[in-house]
Amino acid sequence: MSIRKLQGSSTEKSLSEQEQLAKINDVRKILGPIADKLPMLCSDASISRYLRARNWNTKKAAKMLKNTLKWSLEFKPETIQWEDISNEAATGKVYRANYLDKKGRAVLIFRPGFQNTSDIRGQIRHIVYCVENAVMTLNPDQEQMVWLVDFQGWTMSCISVKAARETAHILQNHYPVRLGVGILYNPPKVFESFWTLVKPFIEPKTYKKVRFVYSKEPQSQKLMEELFDMDKLDCAFGGRNSAGFNFEAYAQWMREDDKKRFDMMYSGSLSPLPSIMSQSQSSETLTPSGISVASDEDDCSSGDEKTLNLENIDEKTQGFPLSCEDVVGSEADDVVKELEKGELT
Predict the structure, then answer these.
(1) Block mean pLDDT (10 aa), the chain, length 345
(2) Which strand (E) or helix (H) includes residue 72?
(3) Which InterPro entries match (predicted)?
């Protein structure tokens, strides 16, 4: 297993490969037999993310991961399909872009001004679906994504503090180290009041990854050019791509991804879905803009972490259930009970 060393800051622990692997094994020992029942969530790569999120503290990382295991068994994020959330997705308020940033990270676009429902649970399931889809399509050497937030049409009535709090909790606690950078593009002045309300629910590491970007500021434009191919980036974010969101084309794209994901789960393969940049040019698929395109760095967001390279990690574990969906019925209840035996304190 090779390691890609990133530039570390004075506030981040610097660990050798052997020390990192020892920490990972320590967490696996704390988890006990549960780690064997859910190897997909308890892989070296996954445990490494939880350790980094907790500054390599094994007890804190194990507690965080146990909470995720319990949440996953109850929420079952990997079972959410397009048809379950298509109503939420109708306006394009959250969707995966058909391009990557220059570091090969998946791009999720948020348009809170296009909110079309008041069902908080449905909204959260939609966001979780989008995040799961983005994670499953990441290149093998990448674990992060970029979030672009377009504030067109946004007002304080578009979102609730409760929904924001629950969303932040899920994304931070159950998808640690997945955010590379979050771009808040042209936020209105009134957003500052909302930001003040939700900021206490955002962890410092996550908060540091958020960038306020304004179209009329040269420095902001420079940042976007450094991150994106401007010919692919949406016009809403200062790019030159005017295609926009096409619901029917996006729906077809997601249904195809759902089929690939479920085929992959049931075949026991944990290889990611073909990514945008590595897809075979011999086949084509419709993107959210309705345009036909060829289908076929382990970069820790803040640059302050040293981490294991995911490129050569084999997450496939023969003979065990691969995901929370595979742990069903009484077995799932038993696992939840194990997690609740004073282990989450």
Answers:
(1) 37 79 96 90 95 96 96 94 97 96 96 92 96 91 95 80 86 95 92 80 86 93 96 95 95 95 70 43 40 35 38 36 50 60 50
(2) helix 58-75
(3) CRAL-TRIO_dom, CRAL-TRIO_dom_sf, CRAL/TRIO_N_dom, CRAL/TRIO_N_dom_sf, PI_Transfer_CRAL-TRIO
For the packed helices 17-31 and 44-53, what is the interaxial angle rounded to 10 degrees? 100
Burial 164-194 (b: 16+ CB within 10 A, else e): bebbbebbbbbbbbbbbbbbbbbbeeebeeb
List b or e across 293-324, with b for residues whose CB sees 16 or more CB atoms inside 10 angstroms: eebeebbbbbebbbbbbbeeeebebeebbbbb
- For 137, residues 6+ apart whose C-beta sits below 8 A from its C-beta are 96, 106, 257, 272, 273, 274, 275, 276
For the chain, the first-to-last Cα distance in angstroms comes to: 33
User: Identity (one letter) of the amino acid at 281?
Assistant: Q
Closest CA to 180 of 200, 201, 206: 206
Tokens 């908060």 sit at which residue? 207
What φ, ψ does residue 115 adopt, rounded to 5°?
-55, 130
CB 42 within 8 A of CB 65: yes
Same domain assignment for residues 151 and 258: yes
- Tell me which of 241, 266, 291 is where a domain ends: 266
Residue 7 is classified by DSSP as P
Structural domain of 45: 17-75
**What pTM was estimated for this model as a whole?**
0.77
Report pLDDT for 90: 97
pLDDT at 203: 85
- Residues 51, 16 contacting (CB under 8 angstroms): no
Task: Say if residue 143 is in the same domain as residue 253.
Answer: yes
Q: Are residues 85 and 47 in the same domain?
A: no
Residue 8, pLDDT score: 35
Secondary structure of 54-68 in the HEC alphabet? Answer: CCCCHHHHHHHHHHH
Looking up tokens 């048809």, which residue turns up? 83
| Residue 20 neighbours by CB under 8 Å, 6+ apart | 3, 48, 51, 56, 306, 307, 308
162, with CB counted inside 10 A (0-12, 13-18, 19+), is: exposed
- Tokens for 65? 């991961």
